[in-house]
Amino acid sequence: MKANIVKISKIYNKKLKIPDYQRPYTWSTKSAIALFNDIFREYKNNKNDYRIGSTILHFECNSGLKNYNIVDGQQRLTTLTILLNLLGQKEKLPLLEQIFNPL
Fold it and tell me: Which of 5, 9, 71, 99 lies in disulfide reach of 56, CB 3.0 to 4.6 Å?
């Protein structure tokens, strides 16, 4: 087990997967806007670093497929994926490729 502070791009460079045991996405528009405003405020204040909170990933190799299951941080990572996609970032957003359980 290893804990590090890493750039979000390092997380998005991994093959991320939201496992079936995770709860569904439940963030409200208010929560997403709060995250965006927090990040934007730090950007306007010329902060080079901003910590979005913890993310726990579990490496899984199953039938030759290598994934990183998101154990903690799913709501934030999903929200950031949505925001980045809306801002025009189309590459290296592995959650956009995720096939979700209909529940």
Answer: 71
